């Protein structure tokens, strides 16, 4: 080469060499693997790792050393006391608004409290070596090897496909400033395969040092290294919490056991939205798609798929339906027998106070569920129990308000006087046969008139449509089982199309059964639980007697004291069955408490709405079907939520790649808690 050509080439080659050296060095020194936030446990002379101290170490690589299976974990101390549920108040409308809204449907014009919600994801990496090892040990200890059933943690229930990152991105992109914080509820493992730390004194004597017991909690490896368990994306914080920290003290591979600890997350808001890692939000969603102060929690059901109740489900012990049937058996034992609709697999709004109340009612059942290492046929299923418990408690409150609070009074009386008052309130006339059966019609109601709903909630619901409101009574009445949909009330301005809802058998439902008198609380139990059709029909009749809006026909008369003391949490008896507790006013109402204010606060506690939203449940099975499913989702522009269920049967890696590329196209923006850089 001519000497004159060498010098320009050197000017190019030397800077490139220096750049390559810097990049190579930074790769080996980069903070996303060897960060100052991350500890590498010391090792003994024999190469055994020394037990880390959870007071000093937060995140660490385990097992230490050049091990391809090493991963980053969160180190947690285990000396904390297991949290327990408590009875708490529920956020409600301002006190001056409660009576007008519940009695007459008058909207609140006072400034409403700024309600926010937290997000919760449950996540387990089924391919984690510690997860596989712990699952195998638990399987062998229980006498059930993974080969005999789907108890392995690497089964599709826990298979890691990378969805969590994009589920989080979809929520960040589509939920507003009403979201307060996000939680990851993650699996954790007992840290036993390590040596106690030692110290050698000046005399050469070796002393074994005490160390706090600790556990290793899983972390998604794409999270940035951090000094602790919290991250941020702008103003939104993300916190990782281990199962142990929510009171799950058994090493479990059972999603129902894990869900039982949701309400015990430290610092959790009053409202939260629960998601699995395969749930995705496709379009911006307002708060009113999940909850509002006036219409309460929003639930989504599949009314044409009903769940029966069984104490010994015939379904597979590892499937969802066993837990569904057992949970409906629990509901039947507490609220009376009926089939109940399936809960749609999408993001679910919940109330922390009501979840804790529910867990107090079935304290034994939830404690046993949290101890079930693998799924069983007697698991309490929070995702199914919660919405139905809320609905049944509201029904119970309506009937108790009318029979016990309004008619029975403080003496718990039920005789001719109370029966006559009930007859007149139900529309029975003087000239009619006394206490005859009454035909009940579904009369016009304005509760869910679309323009009214928009005005009350103060925002556009977008794709969500409110189908039924607790302000209109109870949804599971007889027509539902015929039409496979929730009962709908005609709007006041619609053409006359009144439909007969039921026949109220007055003597059977509200009679004294041949005695001169009985107790109002006994009549309440009869219509609410023993003969549920009595309570259902009575609710429909009283909703009609209340007019187009409100629930005035159920309520006791106004009294001088209109406010409820802040110390009073309005609840009816907490129990797993209806037979034992007393529902008499003297057993329920605290001294010196306004009866009407108590009833209205009770109804407010369990306010809910049933809604429909454009959602899709999609199964990923094969490469071909996955392409078709994802293409169809892209075509349906009105879809707001989707669940991508892992049902992969063949060519797993290819299906995972197709889904990953699709998710990256949909939600390309990285959150602030994700690792940066091109490596």
Automatic annotation (TrEMBL):
InterPro entries: Stealth (IPR047141), Stealth_CR3 (IPR031357). Residues 345-392 form the Stealth protein CR3 conserved region domain. GO terms for biological process: carbohydrate phosphorylation. GO terms for cellular component: Golgi apparatus. GO terms for molecular function: UDP-N-acetylglucosamine-lysosomal-enzyme N-acetylglucosaminephosphotransferase activity. Keywords: Transferase. The keyword Transferase applies. PANTHER family: N-ACETYLGLUCOSAMINE-1-PHOSPHOTRANSFERASE SUBUNITS ALPHA_BETA, PTHR24045. This is Stealth protein CR3 conserved region 3 domain-containing protein. It comes from Dacryopinax primogenitus (strain DJM 731).
């Amino acid at each position: 080469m001519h000497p004159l050509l060498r010098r320009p080439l050197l000017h190019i080659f030397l800077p490139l060499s220096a750049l390559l050296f810097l990049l190579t060095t930074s790769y080996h020194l980069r903070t996303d693997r060897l960060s100052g936030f991350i500890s590498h446990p010391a090792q003994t002379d024999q190469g055994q790792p020394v037990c880390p101290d959870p007071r000093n170490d937060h995140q660490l690589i385990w097992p230490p050393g050049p091990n391809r299976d090493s991963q980053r974990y969160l180190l947690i101390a285990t000396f904390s006391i297991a949290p327990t549920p408590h009875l708490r108040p529920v956020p409600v409308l301002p006190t001056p608004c409660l009576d007008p809204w519940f009695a007459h449907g008058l909207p609140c014009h006072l400034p409403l409290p700024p309600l926010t919600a937290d997000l919760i994801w449950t996540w387990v990496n089924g391919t984690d070596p510690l997860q596989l090892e712990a699952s195998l040990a638990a399987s062998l200890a229980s006498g059930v090897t993974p080969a005999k059933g789907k108890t392995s943690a690497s089964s599709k229930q826990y298979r890691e496909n990378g969805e969590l990152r994009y589920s989080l991105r979809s929520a960040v992109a589509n939920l507003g400033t009403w979201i307060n914080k996000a939680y990851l509820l993650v699996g954790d493992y007992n840290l036993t395969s390590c040596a106690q730390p030692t110290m050698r004194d000046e005399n050469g004597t070796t002393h074994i040092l005490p160390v706090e017991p600790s556990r290793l909690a899983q972390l998604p490896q794409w999270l940035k290294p951090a000094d602790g368990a919290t991250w941020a994306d702008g103003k939104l914080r993300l916190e990782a919490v281990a199962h142990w920290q929510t009171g799950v003290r058994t090493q479990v591979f059972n999603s129902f056991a894990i869900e039982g600890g949701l309400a015990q997350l430290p610092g959790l808001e009053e409202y939260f939205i629960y998601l699995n890692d395969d749930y995705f939000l496709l379009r911006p969603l307002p708060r009113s798609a999940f909850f509002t102060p006036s219409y309460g929690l929003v639930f989504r059901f599949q009314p044409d798929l009903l769940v029966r109740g069984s104490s010994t489900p015939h379904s597979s012990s590892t499937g969802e339906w066993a837990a569904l049937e057992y949970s409906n058996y629990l509901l039947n034992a507490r609220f009376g027998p009926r089939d109940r609709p399936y809960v749609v697999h999408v993001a679910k709004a919940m109330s922390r106070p009501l979840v804790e109340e529910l867990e107090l009612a079935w304290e034994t059942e939830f404690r046993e569920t949290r101890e079930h290492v693998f799924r069983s046929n007697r698991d309490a299923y929070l995702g199914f129990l919660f919405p139905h418990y809320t609905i049944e408690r509201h029904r119970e409150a309506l009937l108790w308000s009318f029979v016990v609070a309004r008619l029975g009074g403080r003496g718990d009386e039920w005789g001719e006087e109370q029966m006559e008052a009930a007859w007149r309130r139900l529309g029975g006339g003087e000239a009619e046969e006394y206490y005859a059966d009454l035909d009940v019609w579904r009369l016009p109601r304005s509760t869910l008139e679309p323009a009214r709903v928009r005005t009350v909630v103060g925002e556009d619901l977008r794709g969500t449509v409110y189908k039924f409101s607790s302000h209109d009574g109870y949804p599971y009445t007889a027509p539902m089982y015929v039409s496979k949909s929730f009962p709908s009330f005609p709007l006041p301005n619609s053409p006359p199309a009144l439909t007969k809802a039921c026949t109220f058998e007055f003597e059977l439902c509200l009679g004294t059964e041949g005695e001169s008198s009985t107790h109002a609380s006994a009549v309440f139990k009869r219509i609410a639980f023993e003969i549920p059709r009595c309570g259902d029909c009575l609710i429909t009749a009283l909703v009609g007697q209340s007019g187009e809006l409100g629930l005035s026909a159920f309520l006791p008369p106004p009294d001088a004291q209109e406010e409820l003391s802040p110390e009073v949490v309005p609840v009816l008896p907490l129990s797993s069955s209806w037979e034992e507790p007393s529902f008499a006013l003297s057993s329920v109402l605290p001294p010196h408490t306004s009866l009407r204010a108590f009833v209205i606060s009770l109804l407010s506690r369990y306010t809910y709405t049933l809604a429909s939203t454009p959602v899709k449940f999609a199964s990923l099975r094969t490469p071909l079907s996955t392409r078709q499913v994802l293409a169809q989702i892209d075509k349906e522009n009105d879809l707001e939520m989707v669940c991508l269920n892992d049902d992969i049967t063949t060519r797993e890696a290819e299906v995972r790649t197709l889904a990953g590329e699709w998710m990256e196209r949909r939600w390309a923006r990285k959150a602030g808690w994700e690792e940066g850089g091109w490596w």
